[in-house]
């Protein structure tokens, strides 16, 4: 069973699960597990690992349109090295500070592989779920996509400073809250833009038609992409960018843009489910990040 099949199985058994985060009486809760082999390329500092793992959970809180309040993390590594732990906690504290949340502790263990399990909490009276997008809505994305794809190329090229910089993404908590009153559906692009569109389509029972030339691509993609096809794949099919992807009524686009603290790009329209997910009229493959 791959990660997506396993998550589907759990969602079937747990009705509150299946969105970016669960919401219980206005309290938002989400948890993620990251580990060295698949999530932290060689060269990733413990500071970046702290930022990124806790940031991934904060991003899921953002995806519900909620205020992020607190986070914890459990840290396991083959040995507990003082400087590494300090750097990890510093990264976790800094990413929480960046979104006005508090890093309030965690747990430690030794284990064969460096692994982090993070949990973030948030609050909202009106969560925005993945279901709710309607044909005729516009589909938007915050910031730029392709940041993580570029980071992975930087690590591969031994440009570790660049890789670490790109890996420390800003969780879109303020944007999520600003978009919440307008959005009919929202999620974060933790599995990449293409896969996010497929997941939103499935949850909302709609289709999407997006335009490649409206997709905001991170500058670093240009530096590392080998050709036009590679650029497209880096931008839409790699994942873990942690931007917000949302649908909203066309009439709300101006207000949503004015409210959002980060650029909001309208990349296409919501269509009928029978149309599927398309880019420039052609089917867009459900490609992205999946743990095997
Ligand atoms: Mg998510």
From TrEMBL:
<feature type="binding site">
    <location>
        <position position="190"/>
    </location>
    <ligand>
        <name>ATP</name>
    </ligand>
</feature>
<dbReference type="Pfam" id="PF00586">
    <property type="entry name" value="AIRS"/>
</dbReference>
<dbReference type="InterPro" id="IPR016188">
    <property type="entry name" value="PurM-like_N"/>
</dbReference>
<feature type="binding site">
    <location>
        <position position="32"/>
    </location>
    <ligand>
        <name>Mg(2+) 2</name>
    </ligand>
</feature>
<keyword id="KW-0418">Kinase</keyword>
<protein>
    <recommendedName>
        <fullName>Thiamine-monophosphate kinase</fullName>
        <ecNumber>2.7.4.16</ecNumber>
    </recommendedName>
</protein>
<dbReference type="GO" id="GO:0009229">
    <property type="term" value="P:thiamine diphosphate biosynthetic process"/>
</dbReference>
<feature type="binding site">
    <location>
        <position position="191"/>
    </location>
    <ligand>
        <name>Mg(2+) 5</name>
    </ligand>
</feature>
<feature type="binding site">
    <location>
        <position position="188"/>
    </location>
    <ligand>
        <name>Mg(2+) 3</name>
    </ligand>
</feature>
<feature type="binding site">
    <location>
        <position position="31"/>
    </location>
    <ligand>
        <name>Mg(2+) 1</name>
    </ligand>
</feature>
<feature type="domain" description="PurM-like N-terminal">
    <location>
        <begin position="18"/>
        <end position="123"/>
    </location>
</feature>
<feature type="binding site">
    <location>
        <position position="60"/>
    </location>
    <ligand>
        <name>Mg(2+) 2</name>
    </ligand>
</feature>
<feature type="binding site">
    <location>
        <position position="30"/>
    </location>
    <ligand>
        <name>Mg(2+) 4</name>
    </ligand>
</feature>
<feature type="binding site">
    <location>
        <position position="60"/>
    </location>
    <ligand>
        <name>Mg(2+) 4</name>
    </ligand>
</feature>
<feature type="binding site">
    <location>
        <position position="130"/>
    </location>
    <ligand>
        <name>ATP</name>
    </ligand>
</feature>
<comment type="similarity">
    <text>Belongs to the thiamine-monophosphate kinase family.</text>
</comment>
<keyword id="KW-0460">Magnesium</keyword>
<keyword id="KW-0808">Transferase</keyword>
<keyword id="KW-0784">Thiamine biosynthesis</keyword>
<dbReference type="InterPro" id="IPR006283">
    <property type="entry name" value="ThiL-like"/>
</dbReference>
<feature type="binding site">
    <location>
        <position position="20"/>
    </location>
    <ligand>
        <name>Mg(2+) 3</name>
    </ligand>
</feature>
<dbReference type="Pfam" id="PF02769">
    <property type="entry name" value="AIRS_C"/>
</dbReference>
<feature type="binding site">
    <location>
        <begin position="106"/>
        <end position="107"/>
    </location>
    <ligand>
        <name>ATP</name>
    </ligand>
</feature>
<comment type="pathway">
    <text>Cofactor biosynthesis; thiamine diphosphate biosynthesis; thiamine diphosphate from thiamine phosphate: step 1/1.</text>
</comment>
<keyword id="KW-0067">ATP-binding</keyword>
<keyword id="KW-0479">Metal-binding</keyword>
<dbReference type="GO" id="GO:0009030">
    <property type="term" value="F:thiamine-phosphate kinase activity"/>
</dbReference>
<feature type="binding site">
    <location>
        <position position="60"/>
    </location>
    <ligand>
        <name>Mg(2+) 3</name>
    </ligand>
</feature>
<keyword id="KW-0547">Nucleotide-binding</keyword>
<dbReference type="GO" id="GO:0000287">
    <property type="term" value="F:magnesium ion binding"/>
</dbReference>
<dbReference type="InterPro" id="IPR036921">
    <property type="entry name" value="PurM-like_N_sf"/>
</dbReference>
<feature type="binding site">
    <location>
        <position position="240"/>
    </location>
    <ligand>
        <name>substrate</name>
    </ligand>
</feature>
<comment type="function">
    <text>Catalyzes the ATP-dependent phosphorylation of thiamine-monophosphate (TMP) to form thiamine-pyrophosphate (TPP), the active form of vitamin B1.</text>
</comment>
<dbReference type="GO" id="GO:0005524">
    <property type="term" value="F:ATP binding"/>
</dbReference>
<feature type="binding site">
    <location>
        <position position="107"/>
    </location>
    <ligand>
        <name>Mg(2+) 1</name>
    </ligand>
</feature>
<feature type="domain" description="PurM-like C-terminal">
    <location>
        <begin position="134"/>
        <end position="276"/>
    </location>
</feature>
<feature type="binding site">
    <location>
        <position position="32"/>
    </location>
    <ligand>
        <name>Mg(2+) 1</name>
    </ligand>
</feature>
<feature type="binding site">
    <location>
        <position position="20"/>
    </location>
    <ligand>
        <name>Mg(2+) 4</name>
    </ligand>
</feature>
<feature type="binding site">
    <location>
        <position position="39"/>
    </location>
    <ligand>
        <name>substrate</name>
    </ligand>
</feature>
<dbReference type="GO" id="GO:0009228">
    <property type="term" value="P:thiamine biosynthetic process"/>
</dbReference>
<dbReference type="InterPro" id="IPR036676">
    <property type="entry name" value="PurM-like_C_sf"/>
</dbReference>
<dbReference type="InterPro" id="IPR010918">
    <property type="entry name" value="PurM-like_C_dom"/>
</dbReference>
